Each structure stands twice: as C-alpha cells, then as structure tokens.
Amino acid sequence: MPYAQPLWRQIRDDLRAKIKAGIYPPGSKLPSTRLLAEEYETSHMTVRRALDSMIEHDELIGRMGLGVFVTEARDQDP
Questions:
Q1: 26 is in which domain, residue-wise?
Q2: Which end of the chain is less packed: N or C, by CB atoms within 10 Å?
Q3: Which PANTHER family match (predicted)?
Q4: What distance in Å separates the CA atoms of residue 60 and residue 76, rounded to the nearest whole number?
Q5: Does some domain include residue 78?
C-alpha cells in the first residue's frame, strides 16, 4: 500500500510548484491563510504548518501584519 503524504506536505509541495512555475514570483504576497485553507479545503492550521515549513527553509518570509511573501530570487530547491 503506497504511503500518502500528510496534507500539509502536499500543500507545501503544491506551493513550491506554483512558485517554480511563476504563479507566485519572488517578492509576491501569498493569499491569506484563510483563503488558502478554503482553496485546499482544509483547516487554517494545516495551511499554517505548510507555510511554517517553507519559512523555516527560507522559501517564504512572514511579515507580521502584512502577510507571507515569496523570498527574493535564489535557487529554491529544498
């Protein structure tokens, strides 16, 4: 039986693919956690876990009161 990744990892991988495809270019603001939770049909905590993982890997940067942004141009291979 194949192993299914946790939903937060699937969201993280999808966001990485969207960044790589230029949907979210460097410096761009991501939709709010609430909107992402609606898009992925999950809780805001699951989305937050995916975003936190990407922030830890310097793929995203959180700015208090402003939102979450894609880090400026660099190789973003995890």
A1: 7-70
A2: N
A3: MANNOSYL-D-GLYCERATE TRANSPORT/METABOLISM SYSTEM REPRESSOR MNGR-RELATED (PTHR44846)
A4: 10
A5: no
